[in-house]
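pasting for the record
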Amino acid sequence: MDMQLFWDSVITVVSVVGYIGSWVALGLLIRWFIVKSKR
């Protein structure tokens, strides 16, 4: 396996996971904020 190709795929996977993770965290934060404001 070519190392350059390997690192390219690793960087792509990390960026995609980070992008999805930030949206999930944002969604959870909004949900938590709504639950707190209802009380």
